[in-house]
Structure formats: structure tokens, C-alpha cells
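Quick one, T. Sequence first:
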Amino acid sequence: MTARRILLVEDNPDDQMLVLRALKKNHMDSEVTVVDDGVEALDYLFAEGKYQDRFGESLPTLMLLDIKLPRLDGHDVLRQLRADSRTRHLPVVVMTSSSEEEDIRKSYELGANSYIRKPIDSGQFTSTVTQLSHYWLKLNQCPYV
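C-alpha cells:
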């Protein structure tokens, strides 16, 4: 099986590190691209701006998306992804610190595949990333991988 690719859209360096460490610790053979905001995420996915050299490359297998982002928030990213036929079916897991009902409802309305609240405890954070990566990268069947 070829390596699965993850796009991690997260502006918090500590959370970035925790996700990367959890994936490495659990031997997930995934390429992970980390971007800091919603604009950069869309540029990466649509091969624009500094990512224009990606033109013609396949999409990641999974996108982990925070909703509280600079420049363009996660809900706006979801709205644009689901409006475009190239990214409409990209699996997106919203992984955020918000437990607000409105954020959860809006994320699903905009096409999130899953909504996970980031645990505060680093051990629980690692366990959560392990479980979600196992499901989305090992068990789930993606239509374009």
C-alpha cells in the first residue's frame, strides 16, 4: 500500500507537534503537509500560489481542519471545498477546541465528515489522533486513492 497523505490545517504549533508525534509513534506511514491557515490550505489543495507546482498531483487522503484559523476560518474552507467538484469528496475531519453546538452544527452542514474536540491532555490527544488516523487511513476506503 502506498503512503497515505494528510493535510493538517492547524495554526497552533503545539497541536501540530502533537499530531505529528502521534502519527510517528503509531507508525502511520503518512506524508503530512502542515499549513497554518485557511488561505494556505486552499492554495495547497487547488495548486495555487506557492503550491502551484502541485498542479496535477492527487489530493491528500485526509484533511485535519481546525476551525479557528487566521485569514480564513475552517468553515469558510469547508464551504469552498464542498463547492468545488475537485475537492467535494475529500474526507475532512474538523479537529478543534470548540465544543460550541453552533460550530458542530455548522461544520456538518458545510460537509465535514467528522467533528472531534481536541483533548487538553496530551495522552488523550495522542490517543484521539491514533484512533482517527487508524480509521481514516487504514479502514476507510477513499474513492480516489
